[in-house]
Amino acid sequence: MTTKDLRKEISRVIEKVPDDFLTEILSYLKEVENRSTDELELLQHLKQIFKDDQELLEKLAK
Hints:
It is built from 4 helices and no strands. The chain is mostly helical and 62 residues long.
């Protein structure tokens, strides 16, 4: 997908989001906007680790 396509898809999806969630989405997008590229990459890696190791993390939590 091109950047233009992604922006269109995001806009399309946001149009369907219930109004109650729009403030949260805007806050999240502003937070992302204010972070550096390095911070965003780190967060993506951390998210992937949590996703890949969810079962292990649940076992460790017990």
